[in-house]
Design brief:
367 residues, alpha+beta, Hypothetical protein af1432, 5-stranded antiparallel beta sheet, HD/PDEase_dom
Length: 367
Amino acid sequence: MRLRSVYSIKQNDRLAKAIYNENGQVLVQAGIPLSNAMISRLKAKGITFAYVDDDVTSDIYFEEVITEQTRHSSINTIKKSFQAVTAPEVLKKSFEVDKVSRSFGGIVSNILHDVRKHKEAISLLSSAYCYDSYIFHHSLNVTVYALALGERLGLNEGQLKDLGLGSLLHDIGKMAVPTEVLHKKNALTDEEFAVIKEHTTAGYEMLRKTHTIPLLSAHCAYQHHERLNGSGYPRGIGGDEIHLYGKIIGIADVFDAVTSNRIYRKARLPHEGLELLYAGADNLFDKKMVEVFAKTVAIYPVGLEVMLNDGRQGVVSKQNKNMNARPVIRILQEAGRVISPYEVDLTKELNITIVKCEARLSKEEAS
């Protein structure tokens, strides 16, 4: 299978993996030749990347980090919980999230189980969702990234549980933000951005009054936009004033945001997301955490079409553990000609580097 931008998918291409809508229903089935109408539907639904099957890559397989069952059950619970706190009768009271949050512990346990079972670097790039459900899928993705990072950092079971709850609920305050501001396609005004920033305090106030949510988890909502140099919000704290969980979720939140499709821009590839984190290391983000996170996620996901510095082109066929920037490449073209495929392990060919990813969107597509 090959991971491709929907803008490079052509008529009669076959999806290697089905794409689901926000309700967990199949949007486009795998194995069926795509029509132009189907491709247009994927674009309209906000899908950026998809796996396409062909004969020379049919044995290349991408294993999902979390099962479809875990994903759909988690999304449904997150959605019900987030929507419950927007009900007028709830808003007038004290955001009684207790009634709808008791199943979150089970969700965290399921996600953690799946993350631990998954032996390769994590990639959520092809997890398809639609614009109107971004906040729910984003909350789940951030939880996956945060738990994987927390596990690598050596957090114990209790800490991981609190971190997982905080990750799932870190953006719950956005449900108090007016829809026209939250889903605005154009640039926000200063006044609108000030409204967006209030979601951190609103989320904290919701969660700290909830008996089933630990106070540390509530602080995840409060602190995930704080930065080491004090340039974040809502309080502008920095350094050790930011809790460990806030630092972890801050990294996971930014990475998923830039590698996910948004109303106002298309998704970037993982290596671009990591470049952004590294650019802010020791200034915005904890450098050691960024380095550990880079070993946790798939910089070049399986199936990604790449070009090497010697001009050869191929597909990422396998990840190398703890050497995410040096995967195994199945070479498919040399000197512009299609050849009999063979594989190159970049951990053994240190003079060979990836210089281009074919799934990268053009400037027009990414705008």
